């Protein structure tokens, strides 16, 4: 999957705040994503993020 820093993604499951959209802050073996609803930053393994992406928004 071709993802770059700054891309916005929509996930299958929402964040606890209710938002489904996230911004990619770091790409590598782990992804650092920032929730666009509450601005919380989360580090997740690449495999888990790629599995849960519904679509890439930009």
Strand order of the largest sheet: 4-3-2-1-5
**Tell me, what's the shape?**
globular
Overall domain count: 1
Low-confidence stretches: none
Element order, helices and strands?
A: EEEEHE
**Structural class of the secondary structure composition?**
mainly beta
Sheet-strand content, in percent, reads 35-45%
> How many beta-strand elements?
5
Q: What is Rg? A: 10 Å
Distance between the termini: 14 Å
In helices, the fraction of residues equals 10-25%
Count the helices. How many? 1
Mean pLDDT: 94
Biggest sheet descriptor? 5 strands, antiparallel
Secondary structure elements and pairings:
Elements: E1 8-11, E2 21-26, E3 30-35, E4 41-45, H1 46-52, E5 53-56
Antiparallel strand pairs: 1-2, 1-5, 2-3, 3-4
Notes on the protein architecture:
A 5-stranded antiparallel beta sheet has the order 4-3-2-1-5, with helices on one face. The protein is mostly beta strands and 58 residues long. It has one helix at 46-52; strands spanning 8-11, 21-26, 30-35, 41-45, 53-56. Helix content is 12%, strand content 43%. The chain is globular, with a radius of gyration of 10 Å. The protein is built from 1 helix and 5 strands. 10% of the residues are buried. Strand 3 and strand 4 form a beta hairpin. The model has no long low-confidence stretch (mean pLDDT 94). The protein has one domain (8-49).
